[in-house]
Amino acid sequence: xxxxxxxxxxxxxxxxxxxxxxxxxxxxxxxxxxxxxxxxxxxxxxxxxxxxxxxxxxxxxxxxxxxxxxxxxxxxxxxxxxxxxxxxxxxxxxxxxxxxxxxxxxxxxxxxxxxxxxxxxxxxxxxxxxxxxxxxxxxxxxxxxxxxxxxxxxxxxxxxxxxxxxxxxxxxxxxxxxxxxxxxxxxxxxxxxxxxxxxxxxxxxxxxxxxxxxxxxxxxxxxxxxxxxxxxxxxxxxxxxxxxxxxxxxxxxxxxxxxxxxxxxxxxxxxxxxxxxxxxxxxxxxxxxxxxxxxxxxxxxxxxxxxxxxxxxxxxxxxxxxxxxxxxxxxxxxxxxxxxxxxxxxxxxxxxxxxxxxxxxxxxxxxxxxxxxxxxxxxxxxxxxxxxxxxxxxxxxxxxxxxxxxxxxxxxxxxxxxxxxxxxxxxxxxxxxxxxxxxxxxxxxxxxxxxxxxxxxxxxxxxxxxxxxxxxxxxxxxxxxxxxxxxxxxxxxxxxxxxxxxxxxxxxxxxxxxxxxxxxxxxxxxxxxxxxxxxxxxxxxxxxxxxxxxxxxxxxxxxxxxxxxxxxxxxxxxxxxxxxxxxxxxxxxxxxxxxxxxxxxxxxxxxxxxxxxxxxxxxxxxxxxxxxxxxxxxxxxxxxxxxxxxxxxxxxxxxxxxxxxxxxxxxxxxxxxxxxxxxxxxxxxxxxxxxxxxxxxxxxxxxxxxxxxxxxxxxxxxxxxxxxxxxxxxxxxxxxxxxxxxxxxxxxxxxxxxxxxxxxxxxxxxxxxxxxxxxxxxxxxxxxxxxxxxxxxxxxxxxxxxxxxxxxxxxxxxxxxxxxxxxxxxxxxxxxxxxxxxxxxxxxxxxxxxxxxxxxxxxxxxxxxxxxxxxxxxxxxxxxxxxxxxxxxxxxxxxxxxxxxxxxxxxxxxxxxxxxxxxxxxxxxxxxxxxxxxxxxxxxxxxxxxxxxxxxxxxxxxxxxxxxxxxxxxxxxxxxxxxxxxxxxxxxxxxxxxxxxxxxxxxxxxxxxxxxxxxxxxxxxxxxxxxxxxxxxxxxxxxxxxxxxxxxxxxxxxxxxxxxxxxxxxxxxxxxxxxxxxxxxxxxxxxxxxxxxxxxxxxxxxxxxxxxxxxxxxxxxxxxxxxxxxxxxxxxxxxxxxxxxxxxxxxxxxxxxxxxxxxxxxxxxxxxxxxxxxxxxxxxxxxxxxxxxxxxxxxxxxxxx
Length: 1201
Fold this sequence. Notes:
Helix content: 55-70%
Strand content: 5-15%
CATH architecture of the domain at 312-402 and 818-965: Orthogonal Bundle
């Protein structure tokens, strides 16, 4: 926990020399007699951190903070305070001592300097009284602003309530509600929003300035354009007349040339007529020739078409049909192949199922045979045991007979026993060898199968792991996308919420201001009705002929005399000037009909101005300017009107000069004072929002409030329009980001599900591989043991078989040398019994071997069944794929069959069409013969006409030579002259146009280009103005959004502090309390009241409480502020001085509880406060005038000094 580890004071106030005060986390109380300097510790803290002025540290000037013993020296003195912050670890307390004046000190335990901040402030005072103050952070010089920025990182704020002095509680009590509300402003960061709003307003002013500049330029360009418009129109008209004159002059030349050509027109017409006739005949001949050629080609075409219809097209259609049929056959073949493959799969499945069935039957038979073999083995074992017993009996009988040949018998018996022992060992080894051979074979097969399975699993695991890595990367990407979209969606929702709040607030403001505007307009309307301006407005807007306008509209005055003349005219500015009394009567009737009030009309034909006498005495008085009527600029026809309005009123500069001739004339001053001839004087302050008429203005001037309301409403309307656009944009963004977020989350969940499933599969595969390797290792070891044992048996069994053979040969030789008949008979019986026993044992071994074979066959059949079942699954999978392919092929086959039907229909139509083409060919042959006859007749007529035309051309050659001379004067190219124009009329028109062109000169032809350039600049300027307007609206919306955020931040801070205050006040006073704004609708123009309800008392405001209640309420407010913006440490200076014992005890308990989250340093003299602290620092003055400190750990009953 961050806390103050140590405060080091050097020559600060009552501390002489250097004093180091170590501080512990949690709750520490500083106590001592009055005047001992205990509060100076907190002053040192304020001084070092730069969070209070000198007066806040109980000093008039900073030099007063230096110890008074030092200031008496006539040299430069210095005081410094160092505060050490522990940033992350807690250290055991040090023992504070003083080094000078008996206040020695011991070094602290070593600590990591990287976990500490050392803030130092040095104040150096010269002997002249000037001083310098410097701040240091970890030994490096910093400015106060840089220091506060660093302290903000530790949540230590200059405007906060980290250090609460004796006067802070009193100041909260005594400050007015508005100042108390400003505390919440500082906590909420309202100042930052105010700075942003101020910056935005500066930008808005800059935009307005640019807009005004553009408006001025636009006005100048518009004036220039309008001026150029007349020159442009004249230039265009001049240009059009010049073009028309040149065109008609060319027409004149052409018409003269055409008139001369009329002399040879008759001959030319005859020649042209002959040429036309010849041309027509030639065209007819050529047409007939072309028609004959076309008919011949058409005939050939028909012949070819008939032939082609019978062969080529038919062949093409047949080819297409053949191709389609080939495709059909291929698809049918494909379908057949697929059906065959499906049938083969069915057959294979059936065969495999049959194999499974047969194998299962064989397996069942084998199991039955195994059961029978087990029963047979049991019977054989019983028979073997019986033969063994019979052999023993025979041997006992032989033993009785062998008394005479005991040595021989003993030797034989020994040999037989050796043989039996060898056979007893050899037979189990043979069975074991057979079993081991079978087991080794089985283990080899299992190991091969296990190795294949492990390889498949490992390959599958590798593929799954690669897929898992891809899925993990995709999942990470999806997660990043979800986070990004969540951030975008949150930002969009926040922006949308701000825009909605801004819109709601502006709509409310718009309604309020509209109501206020309606009220003011209604009042203005009532005033206009009372003054008559409403009636004149009704008449002016009625469209009544003969209405000239109001008196105020018909005159113009200089700004210098406007106030004087308007005051002199008074209500007569609102009189209505009309042409005659008839119009005035019509206006009065109109007002009666509409019940629109009364108005005064001044008819021009009846008005009679008063006779004004010249007052030489007044004119010669100092300050005299002129008669009022002479200062008006108006049309001469209205002179009588203004003479009636002003009469003999004269204008003076000041009231003092006018008073000299008071009563001799009606006088008005430039400041608007009015002096009547009766001696009455009218004057005073003129209201800025008066609605009287002014010269040059027909309507009463709106008040400043109405104008401001209209401007604000227009501004709100523009902002709301932009806000609506912004709302639509952010709503669309919210919807888009929400949809994208839903899709991204769904994709992330799918990827996560796939990853989980894949991880489960990978885990299963790893377990299978692990189990496989364990089984393989076990089986490998078992196989190795079996092979080792088998190799041993392979060595031992042949040796034992050799020994058996040798023993049998020895026994046979021994038996051949025997001569005793009974012994031989007995021995024969024994051998028979031995043979029977051997036979029974052989049968038992054979049965056991058969049982092992059947067990091996059962395992093989089970493996075959599993393999056949796997093949059945593969065949079925392939069968399903073939079935899908067969359905697709059948769909294609259906489409080809439809195409074949269409092609066959086309062939049928082609065959039907072939008959029609033959008839067309016969008709073409008949038409061709008719055209050839007509061609012969035209050829004869052309020969006749050619002879006649030759004669005409000879005569025309002469006239052409005459016209060649005039040909050079014709314009090139030759213009097209309207046929209805005559030469005489054209000559007159040319002369008239030439005069008009000459009359228009000179003409400014550059106006055409300058006008277009000016218009282009105006358009560019209009675009720039539109951009500036959009920018201005955007800045206004930004200001309103800042205002919304500012209000929102204040409400959040107020609600949080109010909740904290209610909770803390309930703990401290066992009552209830809350914070109250005097105007909740407009919190920034309201004050903040602390309303409390102490236990057992009625609800009271802060001003009506007792001193202790005020302190308790103020402390609750301070604690609420601290809880809203927590800091690592707090320091209180005798805040409990006005509280009784019970309240001090509750306060100390709260501080002790709060000290679990932050360090508390409390200066107090009260016993409950001292007892609640973890550590107490005693302060006193001893051994001179210097302060001495002593530390105690009360709760651990330990003391240190």
